[in-house]
Amino acid sequence: MGQLVRDVILRDGSVLRLRAPEPEDEPAIKDFFDRLDPESRYLRFHGHVRSDRVAAHYAAADGESRVALLAHREGEIVAVAGYERLRELGAAEVAFAVLASEQGNGLGTRMLEQLAAHAAEHGIDRFDASVMAENRRMLGVFSSAGFAVKRTASHGIVELSLDIRPTETLAQRIAERDHLATVASLRPLLAPGSVAVVGASNAPGSVGGTIFANLLGSGFKGIATPVNRQAKVVHSVRAYPRVSDIPETPDVAVLAVPAAAGRAGARAAAGAGVRGLIVVSAGFAERDEEGRRRQDALLDLARDHGIRLIGPNSLGVLSTDPAVSLNATLGTLRPKPGRLAISSQSGALGIALLGQAIGRGLGVASFVTLGNRADVSTNDLLEWWEEDDHVAAIALYMESFGNPRRFSTLSRRVSRRKPIVAVKGHRDGAVADVEGSSTGRALRGEAVFDALFRQAGVLRVEGAQALFDAAALLERQPLPAGRRVAVVTNSGGLGTLAADACLSRGLTIAPLAGATSAAIAAAVPHADRTTNPVDLGISATPEDMRAALAAVLADEGVDAAIVLSVDLAGVSPDEMLAALEPEPAPQSDGVPDPPARTKPVAASVVRADGRMAEARGTVPNFRFPEACAQVLALAADRRDWLSRPMGQRPSIPGLDAEAARRRVLDALDGAGSDDLWLGPEDVSALLAAYGIAELPQRRCADAGEAVAAAAAVDGPVVVKALLPPPAQAYEVDALLLGLEGETAVRAGWEALRDRVGAAGREWQGASVQALAAAGVDVLVGAVNHRDLGVVTGVGVGGRHAGLPGDVAFRLAPSTDVDAEELIGESPVVSTWLRRPRAGMPPPSGAALAAVVLRLTRMFEDVPELLEGDLNPLRVTADGAIVLDARLRAGRRPAPQRIRTW
Fold first, then answer.
1. Pairing relation of β-strands 484-489 and 534-535?
2. Whether the bond into 586 is cis, omega within 30 of 0
3. Which of 368, 389, 391 is nearest to 380 (CA)?
4. What pLDDT score does 886 carry?
5. Alpha-carbon separation of residue 129 from 143, 164, 171, 615 (angstroms)
6. How many angstroms separate the CA atoms of 393 and 628, rounded?
7. Among 262, 669, 776, 799, whose CB has the most other CB atoms within 10 angstroms?
């Protein structure tokens, strides 16, 4: 496995680093086997074994026929695992040894996962293992990992055979393990029972002193201890010179020391046994290369001790959970308890966001500034907040993704339970890592992130104001059943603004039932208008607003309401806003139920001078009508996303992944290149291996060959100039349709030669292809994005392929619903499917979806494929067939470190 390093998280929340052995590891490996207790040694080797021979065997692993992994904790090897290829193709024998002190914590399972993933990438689909029948713990590792297992037993030995090919079941088991372990790992950081602040002092305005004062002022339910080498008392609390001097080891240490002293402080805290570090110090990777080296060393130290790390360059964490009451932030803000969780990758902006929440009257459940994200990331927080019953909505400020594929998977899961609203900073207009496919050209920076958020159910907004606008509604209000909105106002002009804003954001102005208008007229006789938008007039009272709102919400044709009021007649805006609150119905015992309104209400109630009424209840208040429409549109988007079926991964018959990958690797080896556009024979072979139909074409070097090729076709032909990929003939108008007979083909040949020459291109001949049946031409393409993995696109095909805004994208669509939604998001293609051209039968959406899934699967199975287009794919009522295709392949260097959760 070369120098590849993989970090895994265990059941108790501790983290271990796995790496491939080097020859110089032989003495340490021998020491490990010598330290095994007699029972573990017996069960592993079925009897006596010489540790020096086993150590030499593992240390000499070449990473191909023999692969090994070492697990380290605090500088010592605590587990060794490996597999060895058998002579049988696709099979290997696997074995483990784990120190007794590390057993029962999931380490063996994690090592099995990593070995299986590596083996599957290298053509191995089966692990064999021989386990003593009395070794129940190891048998449990194999049976619970998520692989399909066959077993036979004889004479006290159980022979196991594991199918290690990736499956849905395996992915689900790994996700479950990741979730439980991640939550356990974050508990010491986000819900600690004790905190030490290293660098706490009595100096006014000092970082450590401010954080420690905040801890005390928040009413922290645990034990807070200052660590200071000089001061004996900090903020009236006894201080200790070192973390190790504290009588009871704290759960977490907050490091508020200069960056140069950060590693020493972390080493001392980790050595004392803390289970987490929060590093607020700056001067790491955000500053320069030396700072990056400091940060890497800090993470290495945390990994060596198996602990988690927030930061560096974090401004702290906060929890209003009454059982915790933690404020370990560098700021003076103290939000009221609530149900909103906030995460920011920027510390300073995070504090500003916290201030925004307080200013909006939003209660906060949890707040974390991640800083440089050396370890704990947004993905980890999503795992934690998914389990936190105090959190009802999540607001994220993100600048980058550590593991975008995992973010997509996690967000999709968490979004089913809790809304996620996100702002992404650092917009990027750069093209992805592509050379020339139409799909790649369309996949500019933000297009892929828009696709990621939309697919995962994350509501992306522009800026902090929109973030908290959305959070204010989603945290307090139910989701609308649809997009039909009623507007109630005391100003006709405001009502018009709101109606226009609704229509421009995909909402509709609901026509009110006659009974609704009659109810409004009866309740508010002086109303200027009782149809939607409802205008109650400038003299409307809070009671009038309450009655009109109740009437429109009772209308079955209304899904949501916007209430607008400007102080024109001396009516208290605060009273007007309070009148919009639902009235709880008392229970039989006299205790009121919480409000049970089932339709959302957004308000814009402002004073004559433009100041907003303060929202004290459940109805959010916004400065302008447009904000009301925007948040209701987001809520409707969320309802649409939740209402879609999950979909299922269909069985795709007729795939030959092994042959396809072998073909690509042979092409790379044959060309002596790590990056090339595949030749037409290789492209056709890959399409055939994945059951994607292609209309044959014959490459011709001269006009005579073209005439012969056309004569072999029953009917008219297409003649296309041959251009080196990724270029296509339509780019220089070098293709002719419907040619029949020798004269037409020869004339066409000469015309194409002239067009290619006029375009400054070298003439390389032409291809002859039968004229395809009439249909629509679609682009289906994929890019193996360096960070996001496989991204598939669908848009208009032919000469207009790849226009920005036309191509819709999805991260690795794998289910039938994924494919349908991807096609539906391409504006032109979806229109073609819904409204076919005059005189044409509807193109087959099912056939198009099948090609989308097959091409995606090809790119997943053959990681050497970097980008490619099926352009055009001719879609008819009877199916879909590729008329031309381009595929680029290459080898990318493997990342040196992989975090596996």
1. parallel
2. no
3. 368
4. 96
5. 12, 13, 22, 64
6. 18
7. 262
Task: Measure the CA–CA gap between 688 and 660, rounded to whole angstroms.
Answer: 9
CA distance readout (Å), 19 to 132, 174, 308, 678, 861 = 27, 20, 19, 35, 25
Which three-class secondary structure string do you get for 5-70? Answer: EEEEECCCCCEEEEECCCHHHHHHHHHHHHHCCHHHHHHHHCCCCCHHHHHHHHHCCCCCCEEEEE
Mean pLDDT of the region 714-736: 93
- Residue located via tokens 């925004």: 356
Average pLDDT of the chain to the nearest whole number: 93
What pairs with residue 563 in β-bridges? 488, 603
pLDDT (average), residues 449-456: 90
Determine if residue 466 is left, alpha or beta; phi over 0 gives left, psi from -120 to 50 gives alpha, anything else beta. alpha
Q: Give phi and psi for 245, each to the nearest 5.
A: -85, -15
Do residues 804 and 442 make contact, with C-beta atoms less than 8 angstroms apart? Answer: yes
Structure tokens of 547? 């009655």
- Kind and range of the H or E element at 793? strand 789-796
**CA atoms within 13 Å, Cβ hemisphere of 62:** 5
Contact assessment for residue 474 and residue 466, using Cβ atoms and an 8 Å cutoff: no
Rounded CA-CA distance 291/299 in Å is 12
Q: Which residue has the higher pLDDT, 577 or 48?
A: 577
Q: What does the alpha-carbon distance between residue 853 and residue 814 come to, in Å, rounded to a whole number?
A: 6
Which two tokens mark 684?
A: 């056709």
**β-bridge pairing 459-460 and 420-424:** parallel
What local confidence, expressed as pLDDT, does residue 604 receive?
97
pTM attached to this predicted model: 0.91
Counting beta carbons within 10 angstroms of the beta carbon of residue 607, is it exposed (0 to 12), middle (13 to 18) or buried (19 or more)? middle
Q: What is the C-alpha separation between 108 and 570, in angstroms, rounded?
A: 72
Instruction: Name the CA dihedral angle for 265, 266, 269, 275, rounded to a multiple of 10 degrees.
Output: 160
CA pair distance 509, 523, nearest whole angstrom: 22
Tell whether the model's pLDDT for residue 430 goes beyond 60. no
Q: Is the confidence at residue 205, as pLDDT, over 60?
A: yes
Q: What is the pLDDT of residue 431?
A: 46
